Structure formats: structure tokens, C-alpha cells
């Protein structure tokens, strides 16, 4: 088409080129909406979260009910335990332990972490990530939106499970020695358990970004969160104990431990402040690694 023809037909070629190149950029709220839709696109997402939450809640409530039944048939409260951490924290003399049964919460950790990993590797295995990056070349913004959505959902879930578990278990034990939220260690345990789920979800997202394979990511998440702390549970060498103390599960165990009981914290104890630092360090490292890996590795 020559210049005269373009002029006669009323087509402004330069304006058309400017219009084509000046496509509106996706704002962060648009990315949040897209990630929200993708997160809930699978019906199994809600089912897995609800099933994990109800299982954890049910185990803790059952522990409190069993403890209450035992105490109902005793003339007086059981004696204080000997110095030393009990083999199971939900034993009858620890009301806070009944609300946060370690195996139940470890199961919920795995569920949430595996779901976080699937948010990342699911897009890679399906090829949807190519469409995402074609529409939004700013990969860091995409990762930030994923972190925000997954973190918000799991934080709400964690707060609901933690708060309801504490409230119901202490209501069951109120006639014996139930705790209130103002008692020493209670609010800390509720908060730590609520924050545990978004922390594990972020770790799962990082593992999914690194491995990008369903089976490999899930197995790696289980090994990292559950098995590794067991490998570093000894106290013969300081570096072994300190490595174990740096794991999220160990930090959570310390934060939900009842300060009203004289438990033996071991030769190299983890302080409450150090446990919170473990939470923060893992969260910051998980986000940083996820942004770095997704931003540099090719699809």
C-alpha cells in the first residue's frame, strides 16, 4: 500500500504501530487474580486442604478427649512428670500438647508443602508456564503473585486450624486443667502453628521450582521437612544438634512446648528467639531461591 492509498483510506500507519506496541501492561492485581483462579482451578485443591485440616483437628481433639476421660476416672490430677521431655507431648499432664499433637501437625505440614510444590511444578509439567511467561515476561512478578496467593490461603487455613484446635481441646479439658489464651506459652503456640503452614507452603514452592517433577518434589518435601530433622536429632556432636535445631519442625516443636512444664531441652537447646529466627530465615530463603530459579532457568 503506497502513501496515497493509505491517506485516502484514512489509515494512520504510525498510529496503528504505536497502538499495537502500547499494549496495556498487566498490573499486580491482575496477576493475583490469575493466580487465584489457577490455584482453585482443580477441585482436589480444596479437598486436600479440607481433608488435611480436619484430620489434624480430629487427632488433636481425640487426644484431648482421651486425656479428659482418663482424668475423669482419677481422684486427683496426675503427678507432675519427671524432669525431661515426655515421649509424646499430648500426655495427660500437658494440656497444650493435646492441642498440638506433633504427628498430626507433621502430616498437615506435608499436605501443605506438597500443595505448594504442585502450584509450581504443575504449570511446568502441563506447559501452562509458557503461556504465563508469554503474557507476563516479568517472571519475578509472577512468582511474587504465586507466593502472595499461596501464602494468604495457607495462613488463613493455619489460623483456622490452630485456633480451633486450641479452643476446642482446652474446652474439653476445662474441668481438669485447660489453658486460656492468656496463659504463658498459649498465644505463642497458636501463632507458631498458624505460621507453620504458609512457611511449609513456601518451602514446597521452592522445591517445586527446583525439581519440577511431581513425584520427585513430593518425596523431597517429605525428606526435607520430616526426615532430615530425625537424622540430626543426636546430641553427641554440637554441629549435629545445631543442624537439627535449624529445621522448621524442630523450631515448631520448641515454640509449642509448654513453658509451664519442666522439660529437658537437651544439651544444646533451641531458644524461643532462635526458633522464630528459623521461621524467618526459611521463609526468606524460600522466596529468594524461588525467584532466582524461576527467573534464570529456561522453561
Description:
The chain has 299 residues and is mainly α. It has one domain (28-296). Helices cover 72% and strands 0% of the residues. The protein contains 13 helices and no strands. It has helices spanning 3-8, 13-21, 28-39, 43-72, 95-99, 102-126, 128-135, 139-172, 186-211, 214-231, 238-245, 248-255, 272-296. The longest helix has 34 residues, at 139-172. The protein is globular. Residues 1-23 and 82-92 have low confidence and may be disordered.
Topology:
Elements lengths: L2 H6 L4 H9 L6 H12 L3 H30 L22 H5 L2 H25 L1 H8 L3 H34 L13 H26 L2 H18 L6 H8 L2 H8 L16 H25 L3
Total strands: 0
Principal-axis shape? globular
Could you tell me the radius of gyration in angstroms? 25 Å
Low-confidence stretches: 1-23, 82-92
Distance between the termini: 40 Å
Approximately what portion of the residues adopt beta-strand conformation?
Answer: under 5%
Q: Tell me the structural class.
A: mainly alpha
Mean pLDDT reading: 83
**Biggest β-sheet description:** none
Question: What is the count of DSSP helices, taking H or I runs of 4+ residues?
Answer: 13
Approximate helicity band: over 70%
What letter string, H or E per element, gives the SSE order? Answer: HHHHHHHHHHHHH
Q: How many separate domains?
A: 1
In short:
This protein has one domain. It has 13 helices and no strands. It has helices at 3-8, 13-21, 28-39, 43-72, 95-99, 102-126, 128-135, 139-172, 186-211, 214-231, 238-245, 248-255, 272-296.
